[in-house]
Amino acid sequence: MEAAILVKCDKVWVNARLATMAGPGLGVVEDGVVAARGGQIAYAGPRTQAPDFTAEETVDCAGRWITPGLIDCHTHLIYAGNRAQEFELRLAGASYEEIARAGGGIVSTVAATRAASEDELVASALPRLDALIAEGVTSIEIKSGYGLSLDAERRMLRAARRLADERAVDVTTTFLGAHAVPAEFAGNADGYIDTVVHDMIPALAAEGLADAVDAFCEGIGFTREQTHRVFETASQAGLPVKLHAEQLSNQHGAALAAEFCALSADHLEWLDDAGIAAMAHAGTVATLLPGAFYFTRETRVPPIDALRAAGVPIALATDSNPGTSPMTSLLLAMNMGATLFRLTVEECLLGVTHHAALALGLGDRIGTLEAGKACDLAIWDIETPAELVYRIGFNPLHARIRRGQ
């Protein structure tokens, strides 16, 4: 009889239940094994089909559940100050648009962020990042957009990059220069977009500080034509695009994003059938942000049924930001996605793993438990994956593994 071939690994997790997110459904494996080698998954699947491993360390999970590490694919984590006063104004009846037009909103955070040093931005962001990490987040997208000048946007993006050095987390950066018109360009949005496309994008792309480019296409943001200019320049610089689209009105931004094969279109409360069809054709992910919907007390729900019918992947994110979603819990975002948008448990969990990875253009590297992908794991003290969506204010994380460590 031939001797069994032993497969060398760094670490093996046994006696686990897996939600691989690789399908069908959640890709559940009741008696599962995950093996890591060189920071990647060497095997994830049933114990009965696993090869014989020789590993430096074997971990008995005692029946706990393992999911991919969670992914927060839309955040504005780098900023200074807060907007608690605006929260009070909204409680008194002011709308988000009214506050923005009166000089509040994004522009108020710009002033505080411009005055902060890179070190101060890093220090203020770390507690927010730590809260997400504590819930099993292993990858996060961080947008700029509170600087609105080349120097300030560069400082934000550098601060975001530094977070990956300060903590064991993967950070994807997105340049959101077209977030609002700064005070020095008041009444001259086209002039500001000139600066974005001629100065900011080329410089930041050359410095390697941005992984993608985003814009806010909205009545209080930028027009479809202005957004088109931003996307054209981003494409010329070799950067993929994303878009804040159809949050407060239908500007047909999602269809524009799809023209540029955008990674994602986000918010989408006012998305129409034409936008859905364009997204489906382009493979653009719909990233839903229930925290902002809840916090601004919106009432128009994104067209979930139509997105499902068209086969558009749905991601979920915190939209962590100081003005409309001061939330640092991806578990809460899942509960909100289920309760406010009527997403299923499966949709919520895929939304913060596999589909969130697609929204970052990283579907080949993270988001599922499959051989060859990064060994980013979240190990949970739960009886069923539904608990991760069902509970509020409860964190059942047992262990968080990034790159096998």
From TrEMBL:
InterPro entries: Amidohydro-rel, HutI, Metal-dep_hydrolase_composite, Metal_Hydrolase. Catalyzes the hydrolytic cleavage of the carbon-nitrogen bond in imidazolone-5-propanoate to yield N-formimidoyl-L-glutamate. It is the third step in the universal histidine degradation pathway. Fe(3+) binds at residues 74, 76, 244, 319. Belongs to the metallo-dependent hydrolases superfamily. HutI family. One of its GO terms (cellular component) is cytoplasm. Keywords: Cytoplasm, Histidine metabolism, Hydrolase, Iron, Metal-binding, Zinc. It holds the Pfam family Amidohydro_1. N-formimidoyl-L-glutamate binds at residues 146, 321, 323. It comes from the Bacteria. It is found in: Cytoplasm. The keyword Acetylation does not apply. Zn(2+) binds at residues 74, 76, 244, 319. Residues 65-382 form the Amidohydrolase-related domain. This is Imidazolonepropionase. It catalyses: 4-imidazolone-5-propanoate + H2O = N-formimidoyl-L-glutamate. Pathway: Amino-acid degradation; L-histidine degradation into L-glutamate; N-formimidoyl-L-glutamate from L-histidine: step 3/3. Its cofactor is Zn(2+); Fe(3+). 4-imidazolone-5-propanoate binds at residues 83, 146, 179, 247, 324. GO terms for biological process: L-histidine catabolic process to glutamate and formamide; L-histidine catabolic process to glutamate and formate. Its EC number is 3.5.2.7.
